[in-house]
Amino acid sequence: MTSPSSSRDRVLGRVRAALAEAPEPSEVTRDYLVSHTPDDPAAVVDLLHENLADYRAGVHRSTRDGLPALIGKLLAAHDAATVVVPPGLPGAWLADSDARQRLDDVPLTPHELDSADAVVTGCALAVAETGTVVLDAGPGQGRRALTLIPDLHICVVDVPGQVVASLPRALPRLDPARPTTWISGPSATSDIELDRVEGVHGPRTLEVVLVVD
């Protein structure tokens, strides 16, 4: 009997042999627009706000000094008694919250994450044209499970430093070696009757805070 590995090697060898005589691919012309948004930071932030809200995310604007009070208010409004804290999250962000904090420096178990009411994170970028926040597991963002299991995700976006107009402008700023999570609104799906159900694959509620210096 031929082993699977030798069969695979034989198939790959035939593919390589066929490609060896293939012509060089023609150069791809990349003259498309990299953004459809005016080059105006205020307009880009307004578009991000509009598209996030269109995806049913809660969107809030805050000064840096007012951020702890707003996060505390959001957690209280959702009756969040426990909140997961990723390593590197600024401690001041939760200074005005009465919720019990669960630091994920030693990774919490899936059961512990499921028993938490909320998670608060930063982000790597936010994309205005698609209403998307991008996390790359950097400081203050944590591993992917933190933002998929708790029912409430509060995500803080620094304006304008973390806001870009479009995907072509976002990708060069992301490290392709890092795991990225792209979030456009709360997790949702619908069945054949088009009945929308939220919280199936991730948080039922997404609150995005745009922090303006």
Automatic annotation (TrEMBL):
Xref: InterPro entries: FTHF_cligase-like_sf, LUD_dom, NagB/RpiA_transferase-like
Highest taxon in the source lineage: Bacteria
Pfam families membership: LUD_dom
Boundaries of every LUD domain copy: 112-211
PANTHER family: LACTATE UTILIZATION PROTEIN C
Identification of the protein by name: Lactate utilization protein C
Organism: Streptomyces pactum
Lineage: Bacteria, Bacillati, Actinomycetota, Actinomycetes, Kitasatosporales
